[in-house]
Amino acid sequence: MELDSYNERKAFDETKAGVKGLVDAHITEVPRIFRLPQGTLSDKKPSVSASAIPIIDFADVHVSREGTVKKVKEAAEKWGFFQVINHGVPLSVIEEIQGGVRSFFEQDLEVKKSYFTRDVTKSFVYNSNFDLYNSSSLCVNWRDTFVCCMAPDPPNPEDLPLACRDAIIEYSKHMMTLGGFLFELLSEALGLHSEILKSMDCMKGLSVLGHYYPHCPQPDLTLGTSNHSDTSFITILLQDQIGGLQILHNDCWLDVSPLPGALVINIGDFLQLITNDKFISVEHRVLANRAGPRISVASFFTTNMLPNSTVYGPIKELLSEENPSKYRDFTLEEYSKGYFEKGLDGNSHLSRFKI
Fold first, then answer.
1. Where are the chain's structural domains?
2. What is the band of 42 on the pLDDT scale with cuts at 50, 70, 90?
3. Long-range contact set of residues 11-14: C-beta below 8 Å, sequence gap at least 24
4. How many angstroms separate the CA atoms of 264 and 82, rounded?
5. pLDDT, average across residues 118-124
6. Among the residues of 118-230, which ranges form H helices?
7. For a FRET experiment, which of 73, 86, 197, 350 has its CA 20 to 30 Å from that of 9?
8. In the chain, what percentage of residues exceed pLDDT 70?
9. pLDDT band, very low/low/confident/very high, at 316 (cuts 50, 70, 90)
10. What's the rounded Cα separation, in Å, for the pair 147 and 117?
11. Residues 125-159: tens digit of each pLDDT
12. Helices (H) and strands (E) in the chain, counts
């Protein structure tokens, strides 16, 4: 990394105020470290209407579980993304977590600073850009984030900020319930026993991330989040009504249009690996916006932040002479270490594990 860029990133980091601090200082231009290389945002075909991204009504499972499994299968195989409605998470819980995330990022700076750290072993981590110092990152993203690991060993409640404590604890309970149901449907979509993915500890770990994307004065020059796929088995995303999430499908960027009360589900890298490419983990990004702040909450089912010696590889029942293993065995820790060192550089980490 060039010395100028490093020093600018370090100066930004040391404010502990994140991107919101820049906006609060009434800047009118995006600082250099946030600027994308020219032409980056137009490197793909223009985005088109995303009405085709599947929307699955979980109320239908009571009418035909088989029909719901079929829809999940098609979405996981062809899209890697789908939205769910009537998912069982009360609207009050959704509103509380969104309010909690907003309250955390908009509270008094001195209180917020006390949670600032780059030590990922802490029970609650607040900072801006986990890959801030990675030289491979295209640019610094226009986003502040907190992350807390809520399973298998949830933090002591007093270790969570008062602004969002109750909301995170309550929301996490609902994510574990919904996650369990999703893993059952995905197991059945593979033609396997409904408990197979749970038995592989796919839902052992849950990390909840709160993202805050402030208003951006020049949204065409930067990104809220760079292109990436997720280091998870699945991710459950709650996004507000501002929009900006896009997925890469057939070399086009498609908007994942906000749907009131819906949750966005996406397949993570680990599920693509263990299903031997049957389910796909697709690249996605978040555009910067003038409207902000945009609030989102991502629930990652993964133990990549915890010591875990489990060795994963493609599920044996899915393999055959016609469908041999495409990936070598790996641990989540090994995969995640390389992913975080690489940062959000726009390249998939999956290819490094191909046979």
1. 3-36+50-353
2. low
3. 12/128, 12/132, 12/140, 13/127, 13/128, 13/132
4. 6
5. 92
6. 165-189, 196-199
7. 350
8. 95
9. very high
10. 11
11. 999 999 999 866 678 999 999 999 999 999 999 99
12. 9, 15
Q: How many residues does the chain have?
A: 355
Kindly report the number of other CB atoms within 10 A of residue 211's CB atom.
23
Residue 141 structure tokens: 């993203």
Q: Which two tokens stand for residue 32?
A: 């250099």
Cβ atoms 314, 327 nearer than 8 A: yes
Segment 178-197 mean pLDDT = 98
Hunting for tokens 């990652």 — which residue is that? 300
Does the structure show a pLDDT above 60 at 50? no
CATH superfamily of domain region 3-36+50-353: B-lactam Antibiotic, Isopenicillin N Synthase; Chain (2.60.120.330)
223's enclosing H/E stretch is strand 223-228
Residues 78, 82, 87: CA angle, nearest 5 degrees: 145
Assigned token pair, 7: 């020093």
Distance separating alpha carbons of residues 281 and 271, to the nearest angstrom: 8
Beta-carbon neighbour count of residue 61 at 10 Å?
Answer: 18
pLDDT at position 136, please? 67
Digit-coded pLDDT (tens) for 269-292: 999 999 999 999 999 999 999 998
Instruction: Give dist(CA 292, CA 290) in Å, integer.
Output: 6
Q: Give the per-residue pLDDT at 308.
A: 76
The tokens of 180 are what? 């369990």
